[in-house]
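Issue 218. Parser rejects a valid record. Input:
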Amino acid sequence: MADPVKIKIWSDYVCPFCMLAEGPIEEAIKDVGVEVEVEWMPFELRAHPQPTLRPEDEYLPAIWERAVYPMARRLGVDITLPTVSPQPYTALAFEGYQYAAEHGLGDAYNQRMFRAFFQEDQDLGEVDVLAALAVGIGLDEAGFRAALADGTYRARHQEALREAAAHQVRSVPTLLVGDIRIEGVPRPAQLRKAILDAQARQAEEAGYGAACGIDGTC
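Output the parser choked on:
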């Protein structure tokens, strides 16, 4: 049986294009005829102590009017520039993601974070907000709060950031399909082709490196 094609997607919860990428990614994977394994990876666009963006400044409203809202309309996604100011740091939310992933709810957690920020105007930098959202997807509140308070998943989050740096991720979303790299919201046809190309390469390379030993085993 062929190994699944692995897709890694680096994203940040304060990046609207990462939320907008969900639909094209789902469309590309649907009925592609190849087993696909998707892993969402953390990336902090603005890590502490670098200042985060403010919606009342010129940049955010301009980029939303020029690029975010037009794409959202094309994709049929309800999304609004949050009023949270300054925008939250996301390190703590990503530590929460590591807790959720360990409990089998990583994908649900990611989706909930995007919708809480871009559709409900919630501040993802607040522990109480994160805890309420975690409970809403079925996570244990006490366990979640303790993990954040104790920094249980801080090292794991930092390791994920080091992996992003090793892959030279500079913007999000960035997708790695096998060893095929796509930066920005992917077109479904583009991503589907990358999946099929990655699967073909895996099939071609299968068996290379295999050998038999002098004891007769292979």
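Fixed in the parser; the record now loads. The first strand starts at residue 5 and ends at 11.
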